[in-house]
Amino acid sequence: MWLFVGLGNPGREYAKNRHNIGFMAADEIVRRHRFSGWKADRKLMGEVADGEIAGEKIVVLKPMTYMNLSGDSVGAVARFYKIPIGNICVFHDELDLPPGKVRVKKGGGHGGHNGLKSIDAHCGKDYWRVRLGIGHPGDKNLVSPYVLGDFFKSETWVDPLVDAVAEAAGDLTSGSEVAFMNKIALQLPVAK
């Protein structure tokens, strides 16, 4: 069994924020692979859906704790379903990647990302990270309003990226992270 976690902030006002691209990926995985509908669970502090991709049982989580406390929910779900840390895959925004670029890695640092910092504190660091590039505003003083700002209509790479991530998600559970990244790269238009 695997746990896919989309990071973001709950609430309609955050839905189209750059920080919520993890939620967008989780929503598309659930939709595309016809998982159960989202169910709010107070004990697990999030919304969960479950289904199967490529023969693997997967629970998808959107923590409803706000980004900085994501680890509370991720830890609760991992314990409840007895999912080992090596079978947790977190989809999150990444400032240090150009818009539309994707990188997958296991373990590592949080790079200043408060959601990852919280997960590290509750679960350890040896989980998979799907880093979804949103670009950097160019000045560290602009980071907070940038990640909490909505994607511009001109950022036409967002929907194709989220679609490609959902389409290739099965490669993550089979240990083919390189195949996952290659499939996404082949499906995406060049980001502008």
TrEMBL record:
The record marks N9 as: Discriminates between blocked and unblocked aminoacyl-tRNA. Pfam families: Pept_tRNA_hydro. SUPFAM superfamilies: Peptidyl-tRNA hydrolase-like. Its main location: cytoplasm. It is an enzyme of class 3 (hydrolase). Keywords: Cytoplasm, Hydrolase, RNA-binding, tRNA-binding. The active site is at H19 (proton acceptor). One of its GO terms (molecular function) is peptidyl-tRNA hydrolase activity. The record marks D93 as: Stabilizes the basic form of H active site to accept a proton. TRNA binds at Y14, Y66, N68, N114. Its EC number is 3.1.1.29. It is found in: Cytoplasm. It catalyses: an N-acyl-L-alpha-aminoacyl-tRNA + H2O = an N-acyl-L-amino acid + a tRNA + H(+). NCBIfam families: pth. Monomer. Hydrolyzes ribosome-free peptidyl-tRNAs (with 1 or more amino acids incorporated), which drop off the ribosome during protein synthesis, or as a result of ribosome stalling. Catalyzes the release of premature peptidyl moieties from peptidyl-tRNA molecules trapped in stalled 50S ribosomal subunits, and thus maintains levels of free tRNAs and 50S ribosomes. Belongs to the PTH family. This is Peptidyl-tRNA hydrolase. It comes from Lacibacterium aquatile. The gene is pth.
